[in-house]
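The material for today's practical consists of a large collection of protein records. Getting from the letters to the tokens is the skill we practise here. To make this concrete, we reproduce a full record directly below:
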Amino acid sequence: MFKPLHHIAVSLALLSPGTVWAQSGFGPANLSNAIDSQIEAFRQNEGIVGLTVAVTRDGRLLYSKGFGLARKAGDSSATHPMRHDFRTRIGSVSKAVISGPATWQALAENGKTTSAKVYSASGILGKRYNSYQRVSIDRFQPILAMAIGPDDKVYTWYDNGMVSVGTSDDLDAHLPPRSFRGPEDKRPRDLRAVAIAPDSKVYAYWMDGTLSIGASRNLAAHREDIDVTFPTGLDGDRKSIHDVLDITISKSDSRTYAFYDDGTVSAGISHSLGKHFRYQHYAIPGGAETRYRIRGLGMSRDGSVYAWASTGKAFSGHRRDLGARRAPYDYSHPYEGRFRNRYHDITVQHLMDHTSGFAGSGDEEATKRTFPALLEGGEVTYDLIHRHFLSTRPLLWDPGHDYKYSNHGMGLTTLLIEELTGTFYEDYTVNQYLRPMGLKGKVRAQKATPDANDSFAYRRTGSSHTKLPFQQSTTGLAAGGWTSSAQGILAITTELANRYTSSEMDKMAFKNSYGKLWHTGSIGGGFARVNVFPPSYSSASGRNLKGIHIALATNTSDLPEDAGARASDLMDRIVIAVADAALRSDLDYWPDAWD
């Protein structure tokens, strides 16, 4: 098809000897003159190999261009400029433009809204995960961590921000609960393990994999935010804080012992848990089932290891056999009593708003270690990942009470869509969500076998770039495994704006800053961002930004610090340029953009 000259612009510019960048796509001359150089400067300054940028207004495509390279010299038979419609990895932008609205659509097809409960008899997933929720409730409520001091007193930290001092069978026999605090950016329920050294210093391990050093009531009195290195396990995979039952310190030689829920223990120093040895096996009364019920461990002066289980039983032994010295016996604590199942309060909207009480991501490798007999054809399913997640993570608060970003929470749309539609997540999103928009193939999951519209993916290290392999997106697809050009992202937001109100879009996993809807995504080999200015948007500067959508997508990850903030600034400048430009009211490149 012949394209009028005003519909397409292609230019090549020589930046330095031997380095050529290509900028191709669509954009009116006055807008291109205002923003092209800014985009190219951003690309070079951040060390990005290639990127795409697109802008729409009221559904009309005003600008869509590619900058830099989709393939560098040496990575294929020849360099290849980044086209405006080449796909790159968009990471968590997937949540806002695919998983959130696709789940909304599946709910509506079944007469439900995002206020629907996730669990319980009336919930979408029913009661199938109740037993795993109970493990978490009993394991992390009310006791968070335990430790034994050099005086053989037992210290217990609780989820209400209190710490008591007692004996192995009466946890507040010496001192009743008193308040404690940790680093300013941590909450009590972020606490995962505690160990007390021979000099009485208290080492606190947090859910984000960091360590602080302090006292029993001020866990960060001396130091905080120390990164912890975990050892590799039996299968060669590196462990994480979510594999840990508890951590103890020997009073005789100050070695730090970390006990894991796969039945192994490592020895090291406080911040390098495998420095002395990576793993040895240990035995425990009741076997694997008991391991998932351990609330705390502690090591006394004589080297005995004490363990307290959520069954109300304690026992003691040594690090290779936790029950060798004393059979299970009763213990008491000041917050006895069963706790209600708060998981039953979680709604789909809580997942999309990241207010469910979940935090972080599921752990595929730890799931493999936990459920080897249940792997389907050797593959991990999201169902198994969720079982492991529930068994090893506390629910951080009453659903809706607070905010913490959770890949796993949005990853649950994998299970929700399957339950609602009887169709696998990817099949539904491709055939029932993207295909009707005309976007099947234009927006697609990461694939191990690329096609002609896939950009290569790069990891930036200093001034050099490493090409990453193409990989199939599997269990992480819903949380961030999709690929798209910036133009493809806006093809979706344009359709969403036609179907839904701004307040409805706001509930589909977008973030909201003073009325602007947005989301970012960062993944190995890609960074992306989308901003949506609804028709009701009011600009603080007084400019008319209503109805403008903008997206940026790159093929490069591990960008310099604050690159995301600079990308946001660039996109705001582009939006202002669009608002200030005198553009024809009938300007729309959509008819040509996919040719």
About this structure: The longest helix spans residues 563-580. The chain has three domains: 5-107+424-593, 116-126+341-421, 142-330. The first strand starts at residue 9 and ends at 16. The chain is about 25% helix and 30% strand.
